[in-house]
């Protein structure tokens, strides 16, 4: 029997490549809010996802989310958008194209 004190926060997240409204549940052992972006483990490494709902219980959650996405952007970068509404910079200050994708040259200097 679980007591209230040991209840873990569960977040429903959506992957950016997911075209439907399908969401996936993860445990979150750090403070979270709807709309926040976090990293979660996947079969192919970690992925950046958006929290769409915070739950108290889930049959599906089996893995813990890794950590919040740290937003390093300036206010100007956060506000910068393309004419189509797509943001210009990711949280780590990487310039994105009009579809929201990273540059193909992104990993060259790392």
What is this structure, in a nutshell?
With 110 residues, this protein is mainly β. It has one helix spanning 75-79; strands at 9-15, 24-28, 37-42, 45-55, 67-68. The mean pLDDT is 87.
Secondary-structure map:
Elements: E1 9-15, E2 24-28, E3 37-42, E4 45-55, E5 67-68, H1 75-79
Antiparallel strand pairs: 1-2, 1-4, 3-4, 3-5
Report on the structure:
This protein has 110 residues and is mainly beta. It has one helix and five strands, in the order E-E-E-E-E-H. The protein has one helix at residues 75-79; strands at residues 9-15, 24-28, 37-42, 45-55, 67-68. A five-stranded antiparallel beta sheet has the order 2-1-4-3-5, with no helix packed on it. A hairpin with a 2-residue loop joins strand 3 (37-42) and strand 4 (45-55). The longest helix is centred in the last third of the chain and has 5 residues, at 75-79. It is elongated, with a radius of gyration of 16 Å. It starts with 8 loop residues before the first strand and ends in a 31-residue tail after the last helix. The mean pLDDT is 87.
């Amino acid at each position: 029997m679980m007591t209230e004190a040991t209840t873990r926060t569960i977040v429903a997240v959506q992957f950016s490549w997911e075209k439907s409204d399908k969401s996936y549940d993860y445990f979150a052992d750090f403070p979270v809010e709807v709309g926040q972006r976090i990293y979660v483990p996947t079969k192919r490494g970690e992925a950046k996802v958006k929290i769409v709902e915070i739950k108290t219980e889930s049959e599906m959650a089996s893995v813990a989310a890794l950590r919040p996405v740290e937003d390093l952007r300036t206010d100007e970068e956060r506000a910068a958008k393309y004419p189509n509404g797509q943001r210009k910079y990711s949280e780590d200050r990487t310039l994105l194209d009009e579809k929201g994708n990273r540059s193909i040259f992104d990993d060259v200097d790392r």
